[in-house]
Specification:
With 567 residues, this protein is an alpha/beta fold. The chain is built from 27 helices and seven strands. 60% of the residues lie in helices and 6% in strands.
Length: 567
């Protein structure tokens, strides 16, 4: 690596680090998945820690990493997010060297372009600020790619071993990471390994990864083959949404990350007119990225064959699983393919012979990405995690929450808000007395006798059990629970109903009609989560309006806080 390339890499690292540190402390606090991650990592080691991991759907390595991180640093939101910034920045260095390895003789342009694409990627920046597995996952996948490329150039035992080690770490980080590792290993055998080294490769790579991944076979088989497992209880599959993968990877507009639109056409058109902002900042950078990617793929070399086959096979596998209802098809679940896409795109860019053309498309791509990132209110670092649990806490404090007031939280358990509640203030005792109808206990509150059915939330069986409840306009159990709460209130006490509007938008009449409709597909295709939380909100509101004085509502993020007062 010459001095000029080193300077480029340092400049990219400085800019990329600043971009990842900007707006690092989120005023809305953690959202659901971040809270779960922190809670598991915070559990007492080893008993509670490993018990918590068993109940979660993700592999354990990131939780171990985060626990070690918290032993050294604080567990404030800022420091927890910093744990994702570090692997996010280190990934840029790894991708730079992967670019050099990809074109051993003259890979400087590819290396710089790959580092730049990683550095300014809004998708990667977003997950570099989230307390989740994805920043570490991208870092590990980039290491797997680096040593896969090294095997092409030097099929040594050292490279075999490090490829196997990082592949194992990837599997230990992401539950479906085995899909990528399987296809990567198979493709290496086809494209990279000379016949004389096949035995060594089989021994040091394939057998090593397979044997060490054996403990995950029960989990994998339960996800793929259990009929009761149905992940799409909150987001049904449709082909149109798959197009958001391209805009997430190449543009600064992250619609798929936040599920802003149900279909691609909803984003592209507004009231029958092309959305000009989306066209400029999402479509144009994406088209530039695709053109470079295709140019990289068209260069017929063994490395390109390896990467393209892994990308295609991984995407098709996840797509088939999504169509079968076993996984939700979103870009973050395909983050393992992104290092390969970036290298092919970077090489495709560097392969263009016209210097003027390269300068033009590079300038347009960089300017559009950086302008949107800096100015837009919906850039990667400014996007509000509207489920953030600090939002309703601050709102209720501003609304004059008192010691004897009552709170009913919908969607999350009440304990999940305690991280942002100061219990040195006696007025905050209301939080401890609060109730919650969450996605974890709704079976108990809404359908008596089904609480022991823990899989009800995820399985198709849950829809069958709850259909009579949704079709009915009465619920004696829920009515009794709410009535008991109102009975304990004194004159002047307030009742706060904290609702997450993004999952509770159906009126009760619509819920009744969907559940009682003769068209069974209508009920089957409606996500269970929306039916449950809409039912809970509508029933609670109707009951409260009958027995208390309604005082209006306050919106904050995706939360709506209804306030009532005892006459």
């Amino acid at each position: 690596m010459n001095k000029k390339n080193l300077i480029y890499l340092i400049l990219i690292l400085i800019v990329a680090t600043l971009m990842r540190l900007w707006h690092l402390d989120k005023p809305e606090g953690m959202w659901n998945d971040e809270y779960v991650t922190w809670k598991i990592a915070s559990a007492r080691f080893p008993t509670d820690f490993f018990t918590a991991i068993k109940t979660n759907c993700h592999a354990p390595l990131h939780y171990v990493y985060l626990k070690l991180w918290m032993l050294v640093f604080h567990d404030t939101d800022r420091f927890l997010r910093l744990s994702s910034v570090i692997p996010g920045v280190l990934s840029i260095i790894v991708m730079f060297f992967a670019g050099l390895e990809f074109k051993k003789k003259d890979g400087s342009d590819t290396a710089v372009a790959a580092a730049l694409l990683c550095g300014i990627s809004s998708f990667l920046i977003y997950f570099s600020q989230e307390i989740r597995i994805y920043s570490l996952l991208f870092f590990l996948t980039s290491l797997v790619l680096l040593y896969a490329l090294k095997i092409f150039n030097s099929p040594s035992k050292k490279n075999f071993f490090l490829y196997s080690l990082f592949s194992l770490m990837l599997i230990l980080t992401h539950t479906i990471g085995f899909v990528f590792v399987f296809f990567s290993t198979a493709a290496l055998m086809v494209f990279a390994v000379p016949k004389k080294n096949t035995k060594d490769f089989m021994f040091y790579s394939v057998l090593g990864v397979v044997v060490l991944a054996l403990p995950f076979i029960p989990l994998i088989s339960s996800i793929l083959f259990k009929t009761g497992y149905f992940s799409q209880w909150w987001a049904p599959f449709n082909f149109s949404r798959t197009l958001f993968i391209f805009t997430d990877i190449f543009s600064p507009v992250l619609y798929d990350t936040f599920h802003v639109y149900n279909t691609f056409s909803d984003a592209f058109y507004k009231n029958g007119v092309v959305n000009l902002g989306y066209f400029v900042f999402a479509i144009i950078p994406t088209l530039i990225g695709i053109i470079c990617f295709v140019n990289g793929v068209l260069n017929p070399k063994r490395m390109q064959g390896y990467m393209l086959s892994v990308i295609v096979c991984t995407v098709l596998t996840v797509l088939i699983a999504a169509m079968a209802g076993k996984i939700v098809f979103v870009t973050k679940y395909l983050i393992e393919i992104m290092p390969l896409v970036i290298i092919l795109t970077a090489d495709g860019f560097s392969a263009f012979k016209s210097k003027a053309f390269k300068i033009t498309i590079a300038t347009i791509f960089i300017v559009l990405n950086l302008f949107f990132f800096t100015v837009s209110k919906t850039s990667a670092v400014k996007l509000i995690r509207e489920e953030g649990q600090r939002l309703p806490v601050v709102a209720m404090q501003n609304m004059g929450l008192k010691k004897n007031d009552k709170i009913l939280f919908l969607y999350y358990p009440k304990e999940w808000f305690y991280k942002y509640v100061d219990f040195n203030n006696p007025d905050n005792e209301s939080y401890k007395d609060a109730d919650s109808v969450s996605k974890y206990n709704y079976a108990y509150y809404i359908a008596e006798g089904t609480y022991e059915e823990r899989s009800i939330m995820y399985g198709r069986e849950g829809k069958r059990l709850l259909k009579p409840v949704f079709a009915s306009k009465t619920n004696s159990l829920f009515n009794y629970i709410l009535g008991s709460t109102f009975y304990k209130m004194n004159s002047g006490d307030k009742f706060f109903l904290v609702d997450l509007t993004s999952v509770s938008f159906f009126p009760m009449s619509v819920i009744n009609n969907i559940a009682s409709s003769e068209n069974s597909s209508n009920y089957h295709n409606t996500p269970l989560l929306y039916l449950v939380m809409s039912y809970a909100k509508d029933f609670a509101l109707e009951k409260a309006k009958k027995e208390l004085v309604y005082g209006g509502y306050y919106d904050t993020g995706a939360w709506r806080i209804y306030v009532f007062e005892k006459a």
